[in-house]
Every structure is written in structure tokens, then in C-alpha cells.
What does this fold into?
Amino acid sequence: MRALVLREPGVLGVETVMLAAPARGEVRVRIAAAGVCRSDMHLAEGGLGAGRWPVVLGHEGAGVIDAIGEGVRGLSIGDHVALTMVAPCGLCDPCRRGERTLCEPAGRRSLAGMMADGMSRLTAGDGVVLQHGFGVACFAQYAVLDAAAVVEIPRQLPLWQAALLGCGALTAFGAISHAARVGIGDRVCVVGCGGVGLQAVAAARLAGAAQIIAVDVSERKLEAARRLGATDGVLAGDPDPAGRVRALTGGGVDHALEVVGSPATMRLAWDAIRPGGTAVVVGLARVGVEVSLPAIEFLSEKRIIGSYYASADPPSALRGLAELAGAGRLPLADVVSHRIELDGIPEAFERMRRGEGSRSVVMIDPQLADQP
Ligand code: APR
Ligand code: ZN
Ligand code: ZN
It folds into this structure.
């Protein structure tokens, strides 16, 4: 099959790759479409640390089940599915505490890019064993996943839109509903309105936020955010963007989401919240990056927390989102700026670096991706 392979940071291209049949408890998915997320770019630049290549990239995708390993129940060939990076074991300490996003074996597997048996199902043409990027590896025509990592989705949902559920949508909605717990009438600020941030704006609106202030370096991103429900926009290049947010809300927002991954924007989110408010860091920083805060302000009961991948049980959260999307209530199409081919991914990373566009979706099987 064709797949996007990262040999080492900066060295990536489409190659012919072998994929072994699904083992016990696994399924094979014919990938229809996959979203290009900033975390793929981070990994491809080496920003997530060493040891993560050679690898087939891609972790946000959807497709159709086309082969099933032994012992898999509840899934059938032909099912439309979205993919998740975390299939919680249900048995480790974090799982028992209900913090399933933090499942230890699932985290180890995603980091190592290997299946449950510690092996890979992917081999390059020259015999080199390849990792499954983030445990998913969906910048490819097919992917083998743990059956617990695929979630059936409604048939009426176009697969190119469903492709966005498994990372961007899940991350954004989880941060709004499970980490921040935005309530009716709350004031929310979203710093960074790219592929994930725009979905956070949409989620805040669905959660009943009265005021949603979008912050971005680009006026076009602010316009996109307004279309999805932002009530105000502030340019990050403004001399005092946090001051502007506080002025717009009479003292600061209840919740500020950071969806960029840099110390400056984390600080901006902190400065934008009211006393007692919460800053939620969603953005993924490069390994080694630190952030500093004015410590005196803890006196005002401000809080800063992290949110990773739904802050809940990822497969259940994904199922809920798929229902919402199937009912036509998730503006997934609106966060897509480019529909591209597999060999267009390096260019999509370039656009991301330049801050252009929002989500790029790889139409891996264009006919299937457009279904129904
Ligand atoms: N202030 C405000 N916005 C900024 C700034 C800044 N200093 N710098 C960049 N941005 C904006 C960009 O203009 C862009 O709209 O942040 C947005 C980032 O969006 P994308 O590049 O589309 O990245 P995305 O896929 O949304 O991921 C954002 O969330 O899940 C994490 O790993 C992911 O850290 C990444 C973050
Ligand atoms: Zn992602
Ligand atoms: Zn677990």
C-alpha cells in the first residue's frame, strides 16, 4: 500500500509499505480520509523527542473495516469507523481512577508506535520495520488497529468529515466539556484558532457560553472563528491582547483555552482569566519548553490545568461526538481549508508553519471519503 513515511526528522515521503494482517483483537481499516494535525508536524520535525521514527504518520482518520482478526466482537466488515489514539485498558491505575486518557499501557503503545504485542505490522520496501505513528498510522491506504481503538460512526456522516473526529474534535470538545467544564452563560477565550481551536470555539458555543473571544495572530482566523460562534476577536499582535480580553469581559474570562503550544500563548491564557478562572492548556509544546507565571496571582485562586485528548474515556467521547456529527450539529466541514492527496502532506506542514489555512484533509480514497 501507499503510505507517508518519516525516515528521520525532515526526511519524509510517500513509499510502498507492507501491512501484515490484523492479529487477534485487531481490525484492518481501509482509510478514506485523514486530517493533518500539528502533532504530526511536531513529530516530523523531531519536536516530540527521539526514538519515534522510522514511522508511518497520521493519527486522525476514518474509513471502513475491511478485515477482522480473531476474537473481535461488535464490529463487522463494512462498518464505517473513526479512529482513536487511545484505547484504554480499563485495568491500570489511571483507568481505575476514571482517568482513561492517561491509560498507561495505551500511552506506552502510542509512544512506541507498536501494537499490543509490542510488534509492528508495518514494513518498508527495504525491510525496515516502521512504527505506527501515535498507534494509528493513518496517512496510508490501510491501517491495522486494536479493535478497541475504532468507533463505529453513523452512515450518513461523510468520511472526510468523520476523519476529524479522532483528534481535533475530540481534543477540543473534551477540553471545553470535561477539562474546563464550560457552563451556560460562561465567558470563554480561545487562544489559537487553527484546526483544533476553531473546534473549541464551536464546542464552547454548543456548551452555552455567552461570550466567546477568539485570539489569533491572523485576522482571517478570527473571521473563521466568528463564523463558528465567536462573539469577539482579538489579534495576538495587539500591544496588550490579554488586557483587551479582560476589558471585553469586565475583568477576565471564566475559562481561557490555549490551543497553540507556546509559552507566550500559555501566559496570554493565564493573563486573560478572571480571579478564580481557569486556563486550560491544550497546545502541545516541544520537549524542553518551560512557561513562567507571576506566582503572586495564585492568591486570586487562578488555576492552570492541562487537557489531553478528551480528558475522559476517548472511545466513549468519540462515540458521542460521532452522534452529534451524524445529527448535523458539528460544523466539521467549516474547519477544513484544504482537501489534499497523500503526497501533499509536506506542503500542508509548510502551510501550518506559515499559519495559513485551518485543517487540511488528506483524501486518501476520494470516492470513499465523499460517501455517503
Ligand atoms: N497567538 C495566537 N495565536 C497563534 C499564535 C500566537 N502567538 N501563534 C500561532 N497562532 C495560531 C495560528 O495562527 C493558528 O491559527 O495558532 C493556530 C494553530 O493552529 P494549527 O496550526 O492549525 O494547529 P492545530 O492542529 O490546531 O493544533 C494546535 O493543539 O492539539 C494541539 O498539538 C496540537 O499544539 C497543537 C495545538
Ligand atoms: Zn492531533
Ligand atoms: Zn489503562
Summary: Residues 88-89, 91-92, 94-95, 103-106 surround zinc ion (ligand 3) (CB under 6 Å). The CA atoms of residues 100 and 365 lie 32 Å apart.
